[in-house]
Amino acid sequence: MSQAVVEDRGTNSRIVAAYRQKTHGSADLAGQAATLLPSGIAHDARHVDPYGVYIARAKGPHKWDVDGNRYVDYFGGHGALILGHCHPTVMAAVQAATEEGSQFGSSHPREIGWAKAIQRLVPSAERIRFTSSGTEATLMAIRLARAFTGRDTVLRFKGHFHGWHDHMTAGYSNHYDGTPTPGVLPGITHKTVLVAPGDLAAVEAALQSNPEIACIILEPTGSSFGQVPLAPEFLHGLRRLTSLHGALLIFDEVVTGFRVSRGGAQVAFGIRPDLSSFAKIVAGGMPGAAVAGRKEILDLLDFEVSAKAGREKIGHPGTFNANPISAAAGIACLTILAETEACTEASATAASLRAGLNDVLAEAGLKWSVYGNYSGFHLFTNPQGRDITPHGFDPMTASMEELKTQPARLNNRLRLAMLINGVDLNPRLGGFTSVTHTAADVADTVAALRASLAMVRAEGELG
Ligand SMILES: Cc1ncc(COP(=O)(O)O)c(C=O)c1O
After folding, report:
1. Rounded mean pLDDT of 261-282?
2. Is 70 in the same domain as 81?
3. Residue 212 burial (CB < 10 Å; 0-12/13-18/19+)?
4. Mean of the per-residue pLDDT values for the chain?
5. Of 247, 274, 316, 361, which is least packed with CB atoms within 10 Å of its CB?
6. Does the predicted TM-score (pTM) go above 0.85?
């Protein structure tokens, strides 16, 4: 997440003024929150300057704030909502489960159904352990990898996000030199090798020179759902090299899982990772996650197998692991994805959205681009002034730094302008489509970008 603070609060920007004008209720709540919560928020990605909108309810592709403004939502529950908000089948499953109890402190039938629903879509999931968040799933994945291989080092890629636990902070949005972020022990980050995304030769050199590498973990379509895309050959290269050097390959499918294809990136690219992490869609919009993979690795969590092998098992409690409400939502959501074309339809909508937004950029004479794959889209504001056309930009030709750099003030004003015009994007000015976004939503979004660009241009932000 960008750490830039724009300080748009005190400016005389007409965009900021118009935003304040439309969102009195949110402003009031943000004022209260500021006295209770750091920055008034609960997740860094919800930080907006001067304040974010407070949402009262959501349905399908839309959400409504406390002032009654409607937004076409591309935040998509941080990527969790491929079926849109409040899908009726998922909600019915949640309601039925809620009436039966939220926390048994015991095993329950739905956790078996949930595991089967994952296995149906992901052949590499020979065994599954549920956790409460994607962060916990990647933490367990690398712990399993260390215990299984007897090695202590993790190879990761710059810019790739795997949650916020201590092993995963350096090198995501800063500290690319591997130095620890505040509060993290240097001893932990020293056991991390950070490599430039897509650099297979560097991966090979690291594996050759460091026999302590236990695993490679990555976002398989590239960081932030392909904002910095990776070629499929790179993934095949990683599979070959990890097998050759006895390291494990971990696909972090927290976002790609059930979005790139029904079976995630691994099924789409025909690669069988040793371990995978899932969250978001896996729990159908409720909190929940899982680590899955080879039986002999997950057996490190198994009481009986470990006792028989005469080794200490990996401990793993977790009060809300596989909680019945998330399990119900997960089963309902994964069953819909298995039995319908929802995943493909969401991707088709994103393709038409990208095309429509690029038409607007071309019309505005901007050498920017909206690119992406599957049900995602990313805005490229071309910080180096390349000679590109909106429709013709190939992100594979750009570096991570170029793709991730966005001018902070322009970004904030454009985001506010899009909110004023009824569209909620993520902080990088991209987002996810769901199966519920319609052609009308796409048309509204295209019109919103046209109006928003005019607003930022009028403020002199486009040069
Ligand atoms: C690829 C990836 N891995 C892990 C996580 C962490 O998941 P959670 O927010 O459930 O802890 C995220 C969250 O956005 C993610 O995008």
Report:
1. 98
2. yes
3. middle
4. 96
5. 316
6. yes
